[in-house]
UniProtKB/TrEMBL annotation:
Residues 106-344 form the Sulfotransferase domain. Keywords: Disulfide bond, Glycoprotein, Membrane, Transferase, Transmembrane, Transmembrane helix. The chain crosses the membrane at residues 20-40. One of its GO terms (molecular function) is [heparan sulfate]-glucosamine 3-sulfotransferase activity. This is Sulfotransferase. Its EC number is 2.8.2.-. The active site is at 115 (for sulfotransferase activity). The keyword Ion transport does not apply. The lineage of its organism: Eukaryota, Metazoa, Chordata, Craniata, Vertebrata. 3'-phosphoadenylyl sulfate binds at residues 115-119, 197, 205, 304, 323-327. Residues 80-100 are annotated as: Disordered. It comes from the Eukaryota. It comes from Salarias fasciatus (Jewelled blenny). InterPro entries: NST/OST, P-loop_NTPase, Sulfotransferase_dom. Belongs to the sulfotransferase 1 family.
Length: 361
C-alpha cells in the first residue's frame, strides 16, 4: 500500500528526466522489497514443513513402544462393552433389594492387574443382588482423573440401596504410586482386590491385545530385550514391569493392612471360577449366592460363562470375542529367561501374601 502511494506521488513529477529516474528507482525498490518478503515467507514455510515431517517421523519411530507402555491404552476400559449379556444399570436396579437408590462411593475396588482377569471377576460379581458394580469405561480416578474431584467420581458409580456394596475396577491403580494414598484418604476401610496371573503369560497377553489392534508392532522378543544379543530385559516396558507384583504391592501395604486386600488367582479364575468367586464373596461379606451351579463351560469360547439362574441357560453372561485371544508363538528361550527374571519377585510376593501360586514350578 505504501509503495503504491509513493508511485502515485512520483508519477505526477515524472515529466522531468531526474524525477523519472527517481520514479523508476522507487519501483525497483518496491519490487525488491516484495521479492525479499516472498523469499523469507517461503523459507519460513519450508522450515515449518520440515519440522512437521521430522516430528511425524519421530512419532512413528516411538509409536510402538508408546502404545505398549500405555497401560490402560488399557484398552479403553479393557473392552468393557464387549461383554455379551451384560446387565444394564436399569435392569440391575430392578433386581436389587427394595429401598431408596442413591450413588455411593465404592466400598471395594478391584485394583489390578491388567490382563489378569479383572473383567471376568467384575462380570461374575455384577449378578449378585447384594453388589452394585460400576458399568462403562474404567474410572481411572485415583491415577488419572483425581483433579476432577470426589463428586465426579461418585457420579460414575451405579445407584444402589443402603444395604448393597458398591464396587468398581481399574487395573491401572495397582501400579500407580499415587493411588494407595489417595484411596486411603477417601476411605481407610476400603476393601481391595487384586487379580494376579502368571507374569510371563500376563505379559504375552498384554502384548497380544495391543498387537491385535496394531498388527505392525515389533515382535514380543524385540520389545522384551533392550539388546537381543546381550539379553538384558527391558524393565521399563510396562508389559514386563506390571508383573513385578511384590514391588507394586509394597506401595499398598504402606497404607492398608493385608486383611483388607484379597489376592485372587487369575489362573484359577479360568479353571475353577466358582471357588475363586466364593473367596471374593466371603471377603466382601456378602451372601455366598454365586456357586458352581451358576457356571457352565462354553467349548466354543474355551472358558466358563455364568448363568443368571441355575437352570436357565438363556440368560447367560460370557465375555466377548476379544477375550481368550490366541497368543503368538514366543521363542521358548525367551519364555525361560523371563521366568528366571520373575522368580525372585514371585518368591517375595508369595511370602507377602502367604500364598504360593506355583508359577515357578
Amino acid at each position: 500500500m505504501e509503495c503504491r502511494v509513493v508511485v502515485d506521488t512520483l508519477r505526477v513529477f515524472s515529466s522531468s528526466r531526474g524525477r523519472f529516474k527517481l520514479f523508476l528507482f522507487c519501483i525497483v525498490l518496491c519490487l525488491c522489497g516484495y521479492l525479499l518478503y516472498s523469499y523469507f515467507d517461503y523459507i519460513s514455510a519450508a522450515r515449518s514443513l520440515t519440522h512437521e515431517r521430522q516430528r511425524a517421523a519421530f512419532d512413528n519411530q516411538h509409536m510402538s513402544r508408546g502404545l505398549l507402555n500405555n497401560n490402560d491404552a488399557d484398552a479403553a476400559g479393557e473392552e468393557w462393552d464387549e461383554v455379551n449379556g451384560e446387565v444394564s444399570e436399569d435392569e440391575a436396579a430392578s433386581d436389587r433389594s427394595k429401598g431408596p437408590l442413591s450413588k455411593k462411593f465404592p466400598q471395594a475396588i478391584i485394583i489390578g492387574v491388567k490382563k489378569g482377569g479383572t473383567r471376568a471377576l467384575l462380570e461374575y460379581l455384577r449378578l449378585h443382588p447384594d453388589i452394585a458394580a460400576a458399568s462403562g469405561p474404567e474410572p481411572h480416578f485415583f491415577n488419572r482423573n483425581y483433579d476432577k474431584g470426589l463428586e465426579w467420581y461418585r457420579s460414575l458409580m451405579p445407584k444402589s440401596t443402603e444395604h448393597q456394596l458398591t464396587i468398581e475396577k481399574t487395573p491401572g491403580y495397582f501400579i500407580s504410586k499415587e493411588a494407595p494414598a489417595r484411596i486411603h484418604a477417601m476411605s481407610k476401610s476400603m476393601k481391595l482386590i487384586v487379580v494376579v496371573r502368571e507374569p510371563v503369560t500376563r505379559a504375552i497377553s498384554d502384548y497380544t491385545q495391543i498387537l491385535n489392534k496394531n498388527p505392525g508392532m515389533p515382535s514380543f522378543e524385540s520389545m522384551t530385550f533392550k539388546n537381543m544379543s546381550a539379553g538384558g530385559i527391558d524393565t521399563e516396558w510396562s508389559a514386563i514391569q506390571i508383573g513385578l507384583y511384590a514391588k507394586h504391592l509394597m506401595n499398598w501395604i504402606q497404607y492398608f493392612p493385608l486383611k483388607q486386600l484379597l489376592v485372587v488367582s487369575g489362573d484359577r479364575l479360568v479353571t475353577d471360577p466358582a471357588d475363586e468367586v466364593g473367596r471374593v464373596q466371603d471377603f466382601l461379606g456378602v451372601r455366598k449366592l454365586i456357586t458352581e451351579k451358576n457356571f457352565f463351560f462354553d467349548p466354543d469360547k474355551g472358558f466358563y460363562c455364568l448363568k443368571k439362574a441355575e437352570e436357565d441357560y438363556s440368560v447367560s453372561h460370557c465375555l466377548g470375542k476379544t477375550k481368550g485371544r490366541t497368543h503368538p508363538n514366543i521363542m521358548p528361550e525367551v519364555i525361560q529367561k523371563l521366568k528366571q527374571f520373575y522368580k525372585p519377585s514371585n518368591k517375595i510376593f508369595y511370602q507377602m501374601v502367604g500364598q504360593d501360586f506355583g508359577w515357578d514350578e
